[in-house]
C-alpha cells in the first residue's frame, strides 16, 4: 500500500516527509478563516438551549477527531479504475496528528487500537493516530452557532440518527408516533439542496407525533472545495455517531440508534468486484458493536449503538409507516444517492442502487400511491438505461435478489456470500441461529423483489409484447421470452484479435525454454508449455541444459556453479543439497576421480595439509587444537585408503544430484494431465532428458559415471536445440 | 441496497479485447482465456500477497491435520480453535477470525487476498457441510470428524481443486463484473437477465472442468510434504504450491481456449 496521507490537524505544522508519493494534507477546525486551504467548519445547529449541558472534554476531542477523519476521507482519492493493480489504490493509509484536550486518554493503547480497528473495518483503510496536548483549544460553543428557544415539552429519551430517507423515517415514526417516545433526531445534511425537503418532512413528522414531536439537531460540515475528491464517504457514519453520542452524553443517555433495514446493513456484495468496503459498512453489525466499544472507552461507561431494524426488509419497514397511518410522509423522503442531480421535480434519479431498492420496497409494501412515479427522473421499471453503470447496477441488484431468494441453508449462505461470516458474531444470537435469521431475512427480501417483478410484468405485459417500452429498461431485460431475437452475426473482430495474440504468443516448435515462474518452473519443449515444480532436480537440470559442459562436471562443481558458491570456501552442506563442499574434504574429491579434477584443488589440498601439519607441530598451541588438526589430517588422508571410492561430502553430493535429477526425470516420464491422461509435453521432455542427460551421465550398466568419471554429469546437446530462459 | 461502488474496465488493448469478445458473443472458454491474459499485469502486482499466503497455508493445514491422531487438536495448537464448534458456521467464523487477525494486524489487506480468503471459507464450508448429518443437528463430534476427513490425501485433492476453481472463478468475475452486466439489454450480448445468468454458469462450469488438473497434483503434493517435511508445511512452501497451482489453472485455460478456437 503506497497511498500514504499524512494529516496534520488543528494548525499543526505540516510534517516533513522525504518519500515520494506521500501526500500531506493539513486540516484545521480551529481557524475561522474560510479562505484557508486547510479550513474545515463543523456546526451543530438548532440545538435547544435547555438541552445544552457541558460535556466532558474528551467528547469535544471525539467530535474533532471524527470531523478530521471524515474530511480526510473526502479529501483523498481512492484511485481510478485501478484494475491493473488489483484495486491496490482503494485502500489508503492515514497518519493523523491531532491535538486533543485529553492526550492521556486518547494515547492509551486500548483506545488507539479500538479507534484504528473500528475505522479500518468501516472504510478498508489503515489508520494511525498521534495525539498531542492541545494548547488553548476552543470550547464546545465553537461548534454551536446558536440555540433554539421555542417550546420544549420534555427532555428527549432517545437519540436517533435521521437521514431523511425511508428507513430512518420509519424508525422515528415507530418511536415517536407509535410508542410515544421523545426523540432527538440528528440530521447531517450533505448538501443544502435537501434543507427544505428535510424541514418539510420534520414538520409533517412533528404534526403526526403531536406532543411527542421530535427535537432536531442539524449538522453542517463546511470545507474548502479543494477538499472534495472522494465521494464514497465511507467514514460518514463515524462522524454521525460521534455527534449523536455527544448529544446523548448531554442528555445523560447511554445509547444511540440507527434505523436501517437488515439487507442494507449487512449489504452482501452484489458481485465479485465488490470487496470489503466497496459495499458500504455504515451500519454493519460489527461497526455498530465497535462504535459502542469505542464510545464506552470515551464515556467511561457502557455505551451501545443499536439498529432495531436489523431483521426487517425494506418492504417491511415501509409497511410500518403505512400501519402507523403516516403513509403520506413517504413521498417526502429522499433516498437517492445522486444528490448532485437532485431537483424538486425529480428528487430521485431512478437509476442508483438506493432508488431501485426504494421503489421495489414501496411497491412490495403496496404504498405506491404515496411515492408518485413522476418524482423519479427515470422510471425504475420502464425507463431507458443508456449508461453502462446504470445497467450494471440494475442487473446486479436483480441477480443478487434472485440468488438470495433461493438459498436453503446457513452453509449455502456462507458458500455464496463468505463475507457474511464477519457479521455473525455481532448479531446477538448463536452463530448458527444468526446465520439462519440472515437467510430468512434475505429470502423475504428476494421474495419481495420477485413479487414486485411479477406485478410489474403483469401491469406492463401489453407494452412488453408490443415492444413499446425502451429496450434497455428493467422489465424488458427481466422478461425472458426464450432465445434472443435473431440479429445479424456481429463481425468477429475481437475473436481475430485473440487468435492473433495466441498465435504470436505461442512459441514455435523449435523453441526450448526453461525459466523460473510463479511457484515453479515454466517449461517450453518443442514450443509446448508446461509447468514443473520448484525442485532442486529441475534447477540442476536447468543449469546443465543451458551450460552443457565440454567435459563432464562433478556433482560438487555442478552444485557450486548452480549455487554461485566458491568451490573451496563454502560452509557445511545443507540437507537440501545446497551449499558447497567443505574445504576440509577436498582430498576426498581428488581421490574420488583418481586424478586431479580441478586445477586449484590439489594445490589447496596440499596447502591445507601443510597448515594442519604445522598446527600439530606447534607446541605453543593448546593440545585440543592440535588434536583437532590431527584428526582432520586423518580424515583427509583416509580417502586414499578407500581406493578411489568416494567418501564424505563428494559422495553425498553425487548422491544428492543423482537422486534429485532422477526424481525429476521419473516424474516427467509418468506425468498425467489428469487421471489416466498422459501429459505428453512432460513425458517428451522426460524422454529427452533420459536420452541426452541421464544415460550419458550414468553410462551403460557397470559404468560409474559420465566418461567413466564417478560422480560426474553431462548433457549431450542434440544439434539444433538451444535452451534459453 | 446501500452505497455500492462499481467499476468498469479501462480502455487498454488487453481489456478492450475482453470487452470486445463478450460483446461479440464469445464463449466462456475464450472470454476466460482473454481475461486471464489481461490480468497478468495485475497478478504481477500481488506477488507475495499476505491474504493469499494465509488462505493457502490454512488450506494446507487442513491436510496436515488430517494425518494427526487429533486433527482438531492440531488445528487448535496452531491457532484455529474448532474443537468445540458445533456447526460448520462456527468453523467458518473461526477461520475468518484467525486469518483476519493476522492480515488486519499487518495493514496489508488486498483485493486478491480477500478473494482468496473468501474462496477458502466458501469451499471449506461446502466440503464440511457435505460430511455433516442431514437429519439431525450437528454436534461438536460431527464437526471434529468432518474436519479430520477433510485432510485425507484424496479429500485434500478435492478440497484443493474446489479452492482453485473458486478462486479462479472469483478472479475472473472480479474483472468481468466490470463489463458483463453492462452488456445486458436487447441487441446487446445478453438480451435478458436469464442469458447473463447462463453465461455466468458456463464460466463457472468451465473453471470447474479446468480445475481437474489441480486435483491429482494437490493430493500427491500433500502426500509428499507429509513424508518429506516431517508432517509440517510452512507458509512459504504453501505459497509456492498456491502460485504453482494457479499458474497451472491459467495454462489450462489457455489450452482449452486454443482447442475451442
Q: Concise description?
A:
The complex is a heterodimer of chains A (about 725) and B (about 260). Chain A is of the alpha/beta class and about 725 residues long.
Written description of the protein model:
The complex is a heterodimer of chains A (725) and B (261). With 725 residues, chain A is α/β, with parallel strands linked by helices. Helices cover 43% and strands 12% of the residues of chain A. Chain A contains 24 helices and 20 strands. In chain A, strands 3-10-9-8-11-12 form a six-stranded mixed sheet, sandwiched between helices. A four-stranded parallel sheet of chain A has the order 2-1-5-6. Chain A has a four-stranded mixed sheet with strand order 15-14-13-20. In chain A, a hairpin with a 2-residue loop joins β14 and β15 (528-533). The two termini of chain A are 32 Å apart. Mean pLDDT of chain A is 86; it is low at 568-601 and 639-646. Chain B has 261 residues and is an all-alpha fold. The termini of chain B are far apart. The model of chain B has no long low-confidence stretch (mean pLDDT 89). At the A-B interface, α3, α7, α10, α11 and α12 of A face α1, α2, α3, α6 and α7 of B.
Give the strand content of chain A. Answer: 5-15%
Could you say which overall geometry of chain A the principal axes of the C-alpha atoms support?
extended
**Sheet with most strands of chain A:** 6 strands, mixed
User: What is the helix content of chain B?
Assistant: over 70%
Gyration radius from CA atoms of chain B, angstroms: 19 Å
Q: Unreliable segments of chain A (pLDDT under 50, ≥5 consecutive)? A: 568-601, 639-646
Quickly count the helices of chain B.
12
Total DSSP E strands of chain A:
20
From the N-terminal CA to the C-terminal CA of chain B, the straight-line distance is 40 Å
The assigned structural class of chain B equals mainly alpha
Radius of gyration of chain A: 38 Å
Q: Tally the helices of chain A: what do you get?
A: 24
**Counted beta strands of chain B:** 0
Unreliable parts of chain B: none
- Largest interface, counted by CB within 8 Å of the partner chain's CB: A-B, 105 and 101 residues
Amino acid at each position: 500500500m503506497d497511498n500514504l496521507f499524512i494529516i496534520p490537524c488543528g494548525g499543526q505544522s505540516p510534517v516533513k516527509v522525504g518519500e515520494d508519493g506521500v501526500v500531506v494534507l493539513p486540516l484545521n477546525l480551529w481557524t475561522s478563516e474560510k479562505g484557508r486551504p486547510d479550513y474545515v467548519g463543523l456546526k451543530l445547529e438548532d440545538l435547544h438551549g435547555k438541552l445544552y449541558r457541558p460535556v466532558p472534554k474528551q467528547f469535544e476531542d471525539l467530535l474533532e477527531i471524527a470531523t478530521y477523519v471524515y474530511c480526510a476521507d473526502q479529501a483523498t482519492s481512492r484511485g481510478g479504475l485501478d484494475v491493473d493493480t488489483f484495486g491496490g489504490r482503494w485502500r489508503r493509509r492515514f497518519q493523523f496528528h491531532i491535538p486533543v484536550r485529553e492526550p492521556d486518554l486518547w494515547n492509551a493503547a486500548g483506545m488507539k487500537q479500538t479507534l484504528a480497528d473500528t475505522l479500518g473495518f468501516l472504510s478498508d483503510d489503515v489508520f494511525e493516530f498521534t495525539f498531542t496536548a492541545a494548547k488553548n483549544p476552543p470550547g464546545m460553543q465553537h461548534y454551536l452557532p446558536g440555540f433554539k428557544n421555542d417550546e420544549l415539552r420534555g427532555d428527549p429519551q432517545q437519540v436517533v440518527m435521521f437521514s431523511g430517507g425511508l428507513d430512518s423515517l420509519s424508525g422515528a415514526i415507530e418511536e415517536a408516533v407509535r410508542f410515544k417516545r421523545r426523540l432527538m433526531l440528528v440530521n447531517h445534511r450533505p448538501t443544502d439542496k435537501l434543507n427544505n425537503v428535510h424541514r418539510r418532512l420534520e414538520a409533517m413528522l412533528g404534526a403526526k407525533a403531536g406532543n411527542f414531536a421530535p427535537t432536531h439537531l442539524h449538522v453542517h460540515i463546511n470545507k474548502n472545495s479543494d477538499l472534495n475528491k472522494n465521494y464514497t464517504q465511507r467514514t460518514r457514519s463515524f462522524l454521525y455517531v460521534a455527534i449523536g453520542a455527544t448529544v446523548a452524553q448531554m442528555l445523560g443517555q447511554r445509547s444511540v440508534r440507527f434505523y436501517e433495514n437488515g439487507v442494507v446493513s449487512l449489504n452482501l456484495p452484489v458481485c465479485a468486484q465488490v470487496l470489503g468496503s466497496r459495499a458500504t459498512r455504515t451500519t454493519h453489525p460489527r461497526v455498530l458493536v465497535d462504535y459502542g466499544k469505542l464510545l464506552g472507552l470515551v464515556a467511561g461507561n457502557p455505551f451501545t449503538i443499536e439498529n432495531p431494524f436489523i431483521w426487517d426488509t425494506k418492504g417491511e419497514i415501509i409497511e410500518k409507516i403505512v400501519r402507523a397511518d403516516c403513509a403520506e410522509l413517504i413521498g417526502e423522503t429522499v433516498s437517492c444517492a445522486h444528490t448532485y442531480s437532485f431537483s424538486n421535480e425529480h428528487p430521485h434519479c431512478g437509476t442508483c442502487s438506493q432508488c431501485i431498492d426504494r421503489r421495489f420496497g414501496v411497491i412490495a409494501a403496496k404504498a405506491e400511491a404515496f411515492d408518485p412515479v413522476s418524482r423519479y427522473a427515470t422510471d425504475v421499471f420502464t425507463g431507458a438505461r443508456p449508461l453502462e453503470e446504470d445497467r450494471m447496477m440494475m442487473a446486479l441488484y436483480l441477480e443478487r435478489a434472485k440468488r438470495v431468494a433461493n438459498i436453503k441453508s446457513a452453509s449455502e449462505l456462507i458458500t455464496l456470500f463468505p463475507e457474511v461470516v464477519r457479521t455473525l458474531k455481532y448479531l446477538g444470537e448463536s452463530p448458527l441461529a444468526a446465520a439462519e435469521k440472515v437467510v430468512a431475512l434475505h429470502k423475504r427480501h428476494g421474495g419481495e423483489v420477485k413479487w414486485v417483478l411479477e406485478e410489474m410484468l403483469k401491469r406492463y405485459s401489453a407494452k412488453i409484447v408490443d415492444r413499446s417500452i425502451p429496450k434497455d429498461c428493467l422489465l424488458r431485460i427481466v422478461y425472458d421470452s426464450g432465445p434472443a431475437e435473431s440479429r445479424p452475426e456481429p463481425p468477429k473482430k475481437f475473436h481475430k484479435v485473440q487468435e492473433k495474440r495466441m498465435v504470436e504468443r505461442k512459441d514455435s516448435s523449435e523453441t526450448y525454454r526453461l525459466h523460473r515462474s510463479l511457484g515453479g518452473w515454466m517449461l517450453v519443449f518443442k514450443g509446448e508449455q508446461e509447468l514443473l515444480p520448484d525442485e532442486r532436480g529441475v534447477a540442476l537440470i536447468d543449469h546443465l541444459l543451458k551450460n552443457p559442459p565440454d567435459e563432464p562436471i562433478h556433482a560438487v562443481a555442478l552444485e557450486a556453479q548452480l549455487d554461485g558458491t566458491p568451490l573451496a570456501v563454502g560452509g557445511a552442506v545443507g540437507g537440501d543439497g545446497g551449499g558447497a563442499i567443505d574445504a576440509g574434504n577436498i582430498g576426498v574429491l581428488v581421490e574420488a576421480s583418481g586424478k586431479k579434477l580441478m586445477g586449484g584443488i590439489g594445490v589447496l589440498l596440499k596447502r591445507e595439509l601443510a597448515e594442519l601439519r604445522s598446527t600439530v607441530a606447534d607446541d605453543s598451541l593448546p593440545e585440543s587444537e592440535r588434536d583437532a588438526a590431527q584428526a582432520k589430517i586423518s580424515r583427509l588422508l583416509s580417502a586414499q585408503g578407500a581406493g578411489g571410492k568416494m567418501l564424505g561430502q563428494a559422495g553425498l553430493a553425487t548422491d544428492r544430484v543423482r537422486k534429485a535429477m532422477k526424481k525429476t526425470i521419473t516424474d516427467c516420464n509418468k506425468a498425467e494431465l489428469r487421471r489416466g491422461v498422459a501429459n505428453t509435453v512432460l513425458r517428451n521432455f522426460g524422454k529427452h532428458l533420459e536420452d541426452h542427460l541421464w544415460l550419458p551421465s550414468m553410462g551403460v550398466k557397470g559404468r560409474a559415471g559420465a566418461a567413466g568419471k564417478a560422480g560426474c554429469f553431462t548433457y549431450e546437446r542434440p544439434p539444433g536445440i538451444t535452451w534459453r530462459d | 441496497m446501500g452505497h455500492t461502488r462499481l467499476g468498469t474496465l479501462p480502455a487498454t488493448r488487453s481489456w478492450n479485447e475482453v470487452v470486445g469478445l463478450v460483446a461479440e458473443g464469445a464463449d466462456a472458454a475464450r472470454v476466460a482465456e482473454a481475461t486471464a491474459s489481461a490480468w497478468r499485469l495485475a497478478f504481477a502486482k500481488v506477488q507475495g500477497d499476505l491474504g493469499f499466503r494465509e488462505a493457502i497455508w490454512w488450506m494446507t493445514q487442513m491436510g496436515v491435520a488430517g494425518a494427526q491422531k487429533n486433527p482438531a487438536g492440531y488445528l487448535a495448537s496452531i491457532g484455529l480453535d474448532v474443537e468445540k464448534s458445533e456447526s460448520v458456521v462456527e468453523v467458518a467464523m473461526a477461520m475468518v477470525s484467525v486469518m483476519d487477525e493476522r492480515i488486519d494486524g499487518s495493514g496489508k489487506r488486498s483485493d486478491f487476498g480477500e478473494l482468496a480468503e473468501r474462496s477458502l471459507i466458501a469451499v471449506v464450508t461446502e466440503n464440511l457441510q457435505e460430511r455433516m448429518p442431514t437429519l439431525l443437528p450437528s454436534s461438536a463430534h460431527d464437526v471434529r470428524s468432518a474436519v479430520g476427513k477433510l485432510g485425507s490425501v484424496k479429500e485434500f485433492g478435492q478440497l484443493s481443486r474446489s479452492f482453485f476453481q473458486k478462486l479462479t472463478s472469483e478472479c475472473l468475475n472480479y474483472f468481468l463484473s466490470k463489463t458483463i452486466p453492462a452488456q445486458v439489454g436487447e441487441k446487446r450480448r445478453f438480451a435478458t437477465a436469464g442469458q447473463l445468468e447462463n453465461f455466468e454458469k458456463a464460466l463457472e462450469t468451465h473453471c470447474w472442468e479446468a480445475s481437474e488438473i489441480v486435483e491429482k497434483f494437490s493430493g500427491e503434493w500433500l502426500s509428499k510434504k507429509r513424508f518429506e517435511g516431517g508432517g509440517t508445511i510452512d507458509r512459504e512452501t504453501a505459497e509456492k504450491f498456491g502460485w504453482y497451482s494457479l499458474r497451472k489453472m491459467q495454462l489450462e485455460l489457455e489450452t482449452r481456449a486454443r482447442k475451442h478456437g
